[in-house]
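Example for tutorial group B:
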């Protein structure tokens, strides 16, 4: 059972305020919500220290290097950008492998990637303990005493999974009569007069179409561990050679996510990993952190994305700020043009990768910490899936999970090795189903 807890770290993190205001708190039946930041106790026993994490060098944009990933051919890795550190490898998967992955995903069945979690949101908003004046101060990033559209747009959490555009914010303002002078800017006075319950009522009453969501696709997960289809195993081994990370890290990462974008599908720009705060726990290592954790996130050191088909129209992967000289969230989100919007503004992004069957692109979501481990999330890794204008787009993601806490990652690996020895890890029903496909032979 989980419930939402609201916390205000006003002094600590002014950055993405509402992301911190609303987060999912996992608890084991302990219903007390402790609003103070929690300090993590170190795990028991001395954990083995892990060696430095491998990180490929970019050299410069356009740089190519030859690598041997499979026995019968060479591959070429080309640097696409340095910020983020991003590469492309044509022919990483064969056409047969692409077709097989799509086939296995279809056999397993895909589910909608995003639905609106309205009730939890209502519940959370109902218990939000922050005064309207404080909320205004938090939203008003440039401290000019007025709320510009971009300042509201920057708080994606406000939309509760619904993608907000300047137009629909203005629509909402006029529906709840928040902005009488209609200039799209809320003064403190206008904001104070606004009843936040009207806002929530409006959000609840407006049923979003799938094209209005942050993400409009279907996906499923394919197991790649022991006993999986030999092609799934082979791909994991290839990724291991490509990334030069330890087998433990790669083998203990998430299964392969296969995604289908139909015509009209998209995924607005986002980063694959959550921010790292002292209170953050990684989804993959939470097993060994058995205390109550205020903020859980996916810790995805790398993303390896495979294009499984040629797309008839659109569907590029956009990196809006790749290799930009500087990064500034507020110039990314203007009052009129939001560069994160992949339905409308992909053409204005700095870098776009056109889907090509068999090609892999991969990048690092974190900066190095200078000590061979994971540092801060790389803001430049912002990316999205552009609108598919014609046909269907199939991709797959291999995320490589690393805990920013080196000690916790070490403990996690130790614990998983122990469980594997005891033979107690193969009780996942979801994976058991995947194993049934291990000998799937399909005419493709
Ligand atoms: C989990 O909690 C128990 C009891 O509080 C403790 O003995 C154990 O060491 C904890 N395990 C980890 C990995 O923190
Ligand atoms: C996909 O497009 C590329 C050219 O962009 C072409 O070389 C390749 O043969 C195409 N693959 C398929 C399966 O159509
Ligand atoms: C990109 O770089 C330019 C030049 O430094 C800067 O003016 C602009 O704000 C940057 N864009 C973003 C989105 O940060």
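The residue assignment follows.
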């Amino acid at each position: 059972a989980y419930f939402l807890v609201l916390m205000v770290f006003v002094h600590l993190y002014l950055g993405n305020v509402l992301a911190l205001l609303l987060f999912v708190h996992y608890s084991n039946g302990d219903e007390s919500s402790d609003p103070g930041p929690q300090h993590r106790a170190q795990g028991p026993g001395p954990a083995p220290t892990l060696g430095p994490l491998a990180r490929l060098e970019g050299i410069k944009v356009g740089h190519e290097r030859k690598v041997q990933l499979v026995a019968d051919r060479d591959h070429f890795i080309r640097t696409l950008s340095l910020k983020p550190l991003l590469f492309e490898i044509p022919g990483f998967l064969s056409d047969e492998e692409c077709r097989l992955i799509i086939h296995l995903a279809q056999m397993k069945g895909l589910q909608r990637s995003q639905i609106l979690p309205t009730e939890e949101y209502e519940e959370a908003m109902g218990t939000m303990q922050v005064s309207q004046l404080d909320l205004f101060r938090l939203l008003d990033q440039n401290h000019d005493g007025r709320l510009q559209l971009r300042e509201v747009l920057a708080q994606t959490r406000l939309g509760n999974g619904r993608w907000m555009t300047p137009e629909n914010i203005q629509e909402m303002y006029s529906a709840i009569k928040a902005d009488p002078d209609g200039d799209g800017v809320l003064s403190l006075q206008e904001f104070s007069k606004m009843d936040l319950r009207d806002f929530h009522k409006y959000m609840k009453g407006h049923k979003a179409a799938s094209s209005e969501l942050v993400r409009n696709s279907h996906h499923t997960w394919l197991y790649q561990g022991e006993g999986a289809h030999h092609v799934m195993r082979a791909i994991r081994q290839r990724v291991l050679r490509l990334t030069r990370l330890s087998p433990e890290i790669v083998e203990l990462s998430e299964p392969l996510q296969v995604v289908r974008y139909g015509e009209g599908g998209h995924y607005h720009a986002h980063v694959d990993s959550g921010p790292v705060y002292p209170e953050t726990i990684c989804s993959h290592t939470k097993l060994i952190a058995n205390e109550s954790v205020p903020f859980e996130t996916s810790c995805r050191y790398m993303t390896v994305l495979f294009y499984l088909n040629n797309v008839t129209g659109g569907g590029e992967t956009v990196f809006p700020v790749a290799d930009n000289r500087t990064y500034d969230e507020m110039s990314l989100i203007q009052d009129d043009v939001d560069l994160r919007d992949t339905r409308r503004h992909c053409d204005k992004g700095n870098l776009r990768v056109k889907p090509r069957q068999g090609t892999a692109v991969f990048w690092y979501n974190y900066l190095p910490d200078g000590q061979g481990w994971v540092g801060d999330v790389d803001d430049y890794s912002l990316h999205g899936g552009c609108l598919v204008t014609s046909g269907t787009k199939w991709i797959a993601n291999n995320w490589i999970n690393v805990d920013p806490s080196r000690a916790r990652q070490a403990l996690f690996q130790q614990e998983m090795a122990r469980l594997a020895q005891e033979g107690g890890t193969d009780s996942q029903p979801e994976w058991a189903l995947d194993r049934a496909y291990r000998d799937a032979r399909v005419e493709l």
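The longest helix spans residues 406-422. Compare this with the pattern of hydrophobic and polar residues in the output above.
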